[in-house]
Structure formats: C-alpha cells, structure tokens
Amino acid sequence: MRTPAGAINVERYQGAVAEGRLRRLWNANAPGYLFLLPWLIGFFGLTLGPALISLYLSFTDFDMLQAPRWVGMANYVRIATADPKFSAAMYVTLTYVVFSVPFKLTFALLVAMALNRGLRGLSVYRAIFYLPSLLGGSVAIAVLWRQLFASDGLVNAALSYFGIEGPSWISHPNYSIYTLVALSVWQFGSPMIIFLAGLRQIPQDMYEAASLDGASKFRQFYKITLPLLTPVIFFNAVVQTIDAFKAFTPAFIISGGTGGPINSTLFYTLYLYQEAFGNFRMGYASALAWILVLIIAIFTAFSFLTSRYWVHYDD
User: Fold this and answer.
1) pLDDT tier, 20 (very low <50, low <70, confident <90, very high otherwise)
2) One domain, residues 27 and 174
3) Where would you find the membrane-spanning parts of this chain (predicted)?
4) Is residue 98 part of a domain?
5) Which of 121, 134, 171, 256 lies in the 20 to 30 Å Cα band around 200?
C-alpha cells in the first residue's frame, strides 16, 4: 500500500521544522557549550572517570602489574576486621580534626575581630595574615616546620632561654601530632578572610543599641556577633573539617613518609598512600579512599541536618 503524497509532505515539513528548531537551539547555545568544553573534559576525564574506576578497583585485588582480580567485599571486610593500621590512622586523623579545626577557627575569628576595629592599612594586615594559608600546604613549609620543632630547633632554643628543656617534638609520640595541629592553626588566613567579610555585614546600629541598653562587650559578642555569624561559622567549619580529613603533605614530610614515631602521625591519607604506592595494593587503597569519601559525606550530611538548630539566617 503506497503512502499518500500529502502524508509524505507533512512528514517532511515536520522534519524540517524539527531540524530548524535544533539548528536554532545549537546556534544559540553553541558558544556556551564551547566555553564549557574544557571543564566538561576535565570533569569526565579527570574527576568522574577516575572516581568510577577507583570504585571498581575497590572490589578487586590489583597490584598495577597484573590485571585486576575481582574479590568482592574482601577489601572492605579486611578494613573492618583485620587491619590495625586502619584503626590507628583513623584515631590520628580524628585527633587532628578535633583539635585543629576548633583552634584554627577560634584564632581566625579573634584576628578577624581585631582587624574589624578599623585599623589603618587593613589591606596590608589582611594580606600578611592570609599569606600562611597560601604557603602552609607546601613542602618547603613542612620542612621548615620540621626544623623548628626538632630537638635542636628554634622552639627548644626559645624555651631554653627561659630555663625550660623542651623535648624532641617531632620524634616523641606524645607531641608529634600537636606540631601538625600547630601548623594547621598557623594557616588561619582563609577562614579569617571569610570571618572578616561576615563581620562587615553586621549592622553597627545593633551594637549601638545594645550599648545604650548597658550590654557589655562580652554580652554583645554572645548575643549579636555569634548568632549573626553562625552561617559563616557553619561554612568555615564544614570546609576546614573536610580539608583536615584530607591533610597529607605535612605528615608525609615531617614523618618522612612513615607516619612515625609509632604511627603517631599516620594520617588516613598517608596510610592510603602507603598502601597504594608503597605496598602496591591499589585495590585495597581504593577501598580506603571510598571509606574516606563515605566518612566525609556522613559528616557533611550530619552538619547540614543539625545546622537548622543553631545556624540563624535572615528569616
């Protein structure tokens, strides 16, 4: 049975209309897609693709010399039941997070409040205080930090001036982790800048009204500054905690890549690195990496769920 000529013309017309619509959409959006192309290549080729590959490798036994061998949940079972170094790395990392993040945010807020008092040359001070955040994660600063806290370093030399004999901070298991905490606190510039921006958004007439009512400086800070800064505090806390979980370079340089002494600086990321590039257990290291992703995701989700009870927005 032959198709009527009129039906063929209608189909051609509809096809031409659809083709013209697609051509107009492409002409309108092509520049945007072209500008996005480098990001799309980077996202799929350098982020999403490797992440999916590492997820697959986490269920395999892979030493980078032979083809991956599927082992199912064996890597995760071993992490949960038969890996004492995993527990040691988690303890060290949680200790680092618990101490470094609160001290860092507290120090950053204090400096931001001092800079918010209308100092002359504010931009110079702001740049100087932000500089450690740019340099703190570098290998050179980690090497410098190791020299400062060595048994014959500058810190012990300063203590000896007051008649105090300091220990070898980086080689003593009771003190080594706190040298890394001090290095983290020293990099307070990034949250300080964000705190300073938040302080600038608080209306000054609120402080003036509180002063007229007889409120002390501490009460003004507790009743005005802190509640209005809670969104900024929340943002800084989440970002800095995630960064603390991912810390690697200082522990690697100060401990020489061993996590010593006695695993006291064995950060989770350092242990992951040892398994991947020291023991060539790439499948096991991939499982460790995905557990870290899960831990960070749980913390972030918990932070957002609890933020409704203490973070105050304009509404």
Assistant:
1) low
2) no
3) 33-59, 94-115, 127-145, 175-199, 220-239, 251-273, 285-305
4) yes
5) 134
pLDDT digits (tens, 9 = 90+) for 23-78: 777 777 778 878 888 998 998 898 999 999 999 999 999 988 889 999 999 999 99
Residues of 280-308 as b/e, b for ≥16 C-beta within 10 angstroms? ebbbbbbbbbbbbeeeeeeeeeeeeeebe
Point out which residues pair with 60 in neighbouring strands: 70
Q: Are 244 and 184 in contact (CB under 8 A)?
A: yes
**How far is it, in rounded angstroms, from Cα 267 to Cα 252?**
9
Q: How many domains does the chain have?
A: 2
Q: Is 134 left (phi over 0), alpha (psi -120 to 50) or beta?
A: alpha
Is residue 75 in some structural domain? no
**Contact (Cβ atoms closer than 8 angstroms) between residue 218 and residue 107:** no
CB 244 within 8 A of CB 296: no
Phi, psi of 70 (to 5 degrees): -65, 125
Q: Which two tokens stand for residue 27?
A: 């002409």
Same domain for 52 and 110?
no
In percent, how much of the chain has pLDDT > 90? Answer: 43
Using alpha carbons, select from 156, 157, 182, 147 the residue that is nearest to residue 265.
182
Report residue 39 as tokens.
């990001």
Classify 91 as helix, strand or coil: helix
The runs of H, that is alpha helices, within the chain are 5-42, 49-57, 74-81, 84-115, 122-135, 139-148, 154-161, 176-186, 189-200, 204-212, 217-220, 226-245, 249-255, 268-273, 282-306
Q: Which domain holds residue 47?
A: 19-58
Q: What angle do CA 97, 290, 77 make, to 5 degrees?
A: 105
Would you say the C-alpha torsion 150, 154, 157, 158 has a positive or negative sign? negative
Q: What's this model's pTM, rounded to 2 decimal places? A: 0.86
Q: How many Cα atoms occupy the beta-carbon half-sphere of 112 within 13 Å?
A: 25
Q: Are 177 and 114 in contact (CB under 8 A)?
A: no
Give residue 9's pLDDT: 57
